């Protein structure tokens, strides 16, 4: 997957907006062969592959949100207030029209999403939509190049280029320790250059004290909750890690070592492959899986009250033993399966947080849980038609011990038919 940004400077009409006057350009953005900036202009009844916009505002938006763009993690369930403003290019226009191109980080790559839409009070309609994963460094290089070109165009113009030049210089000048702080602040949804001193001190202390395996997810899970202190989060982590250290669960290490590891790159496919392999090794075919707290396949668990709704539990470092948020039986079974899937598919040592974050690791554990508890092949044999009555879905959910949402999700992801909405 690749991204390409090209532009040509154009002469702007006379305006009191000096930044727009200096940096007006025809901008084209292509992602994996799709032209994100393709537009239909209803006024002129014409199509084109670019938008005309001041690149000065785009560069300022990029610089102002640089750390959040590349480090702030998305919530898979509920959009956070202020997240889109820092990740969707449409917010960079300052009144000028830009495509809705959302950029969010994954561990190794950046997920880009663009959609068809017509901005309010505009005759321009963006006609392309899609999603792609691009190399993080490739996107960073493309955005850096744009900022550098704009900064060069504004060089010497203190009136229009002061913010861009000073902020960009500060970003380039951060050392390794400062970079760790910037990352921590961004995970929390903060601009690292605007963090107040009390919170800055808490962040530094938390970063150095927290278990490295979980500190990223912990901070990302605290994002958007209106926190006033990181102390409750730090206290919960310490308490749960202590309780899990004293848990004596069955030894799953040999079981995990015998599992074939999936070579596919997509996290949800890795989760599916791992779940099928685990069920096969456990001798499970199509029947409901019953978790046990004793015996060779025990998954020890305790109940906890996480400090944020995004955090749903914690998994021990050396087994699938876990501390889970209280909830309905189907929810706890799903979390137990996620804990097992996280442990079996783990590539790094240390404990893990179960959360609602849109990361590769969380996506893999959710896919594992869905396939482990409600196998697609078993559902396919049971459904047998394209239009499934809702009561059949509910009956299957009860039989497998999952929510109806999980069955519907499996149906959608594995093309098992559609629920007939009567």
Describe what you observe in this structure.
- The chain is an alpha+beta fold.
- The chain has three domains: 3-171, no CATH class; 178-243, no CATH class; 253-419, no CATH class.
- It contains 17 helices and 16 strands.
- It has helices spanning 18-23, 55-64, 66-71, 83-87, 136-154, 158-173, 176-187, 197-209, 212-222, 231-245, 253-257, 267-282, 329-344, 360-373, 376-383, 390-400, 404-413, and strands at 3-9, 24-31, 34-35, 39-41, 46-48, 51-54, 101-105, 109-114, 124-126, 130-135, 301-304, 311-315, 322-325, 352-355, 387-388, 418-419.
- A hairpin with a 3-residue loop joins strand 7 (101-105) and strand 8.
- It is globular and about 75 Å long.
Question: What tags apply to this protein structure?
Answer:
single chain; 422 residues; alpha+beta; 3 domains; 4-stranded mixed sheet; 16% strand; globular
Shape: globular
Query: Quick one: biggest sheet?
Result: 4 strands, antiparallel
Q: What percent of residues adopt helix (DSSP H or I)?
A: 40-55%
Strand proportion, as a percent range, falls in 15-25%
Uncertain regions spanning at least 5 consecutive residues: none
Mean pLDDT: 91
Please report the number of helical segments. 17
Question: Number of domains in the coordinates?
Answer: 3
